[in-house]
Amino acid sequence: MTIVLSVSVVVTAVLVFLLLGSQIEMYRLIEQIRKHGGLVDRPQPIEIAKVGEPPSSAGLPAELDSAAAAIALLLSDKCANCRSIAASLDGSVPPDVLLVIAAQDPAIDPDLTLSYDLDPNRTIIDPAARVWDELGINTSPVAVVVKHGRLTRATTVPSTRQLDVLRKSLQDEELHDIGKPSSLKGSDPR
Known about the structure:
By secondary structure, this protein is of the alpha/beta class. The chain has two domains: 1-40; 45-180, Glutaredoxin, CATH 3.40.30. The protein has helices at 2-36, 80-89, 112-115, 130-135, 160-178; strands at 45-46, 69-76, 97-102, 123-125, 142-147, 150-156. The protein contains five helices and six strands, in the order αββαβαβαββα. The longest helix has 35 residues, at 2-36.
């Protein structure tokens, strides 16, 4: 009886080991398929005009000129990823994010904030895509990072998860900058 039980335990352990190995291999294959198909969720840096200038010079609200850290998220009404990101926000635009929606299709309702249930105080409709033109951007969705009232960089935002990662890294940078004497205005390094 003990031999039968021992053999069944060993056989079960071998089967579990084989099943775990096949599952790991399946996940590796899925990752390879995503890479080959261009479905990898990685943001790409984008060069923008007006780096180092105040955001208002690119048509963004003047309130960003005094922001310590903020993100202007540029979305288009023609982009499926943009619609997905807007829908996933579910009406709650984070306080450090300003949405700029380019409504390039005149057949679409001009008040896209209602369509996506977005906070109208944190959303700007840009029907002529002026912000895109000023920054020299021709893709979407794009996050434009503002630090200390200046445009610093831009990156694609392929998903809401990547927007959260960017927000977290910006918050971490801000916490790191607080400890530096150079971040204090009027401080004397002596």
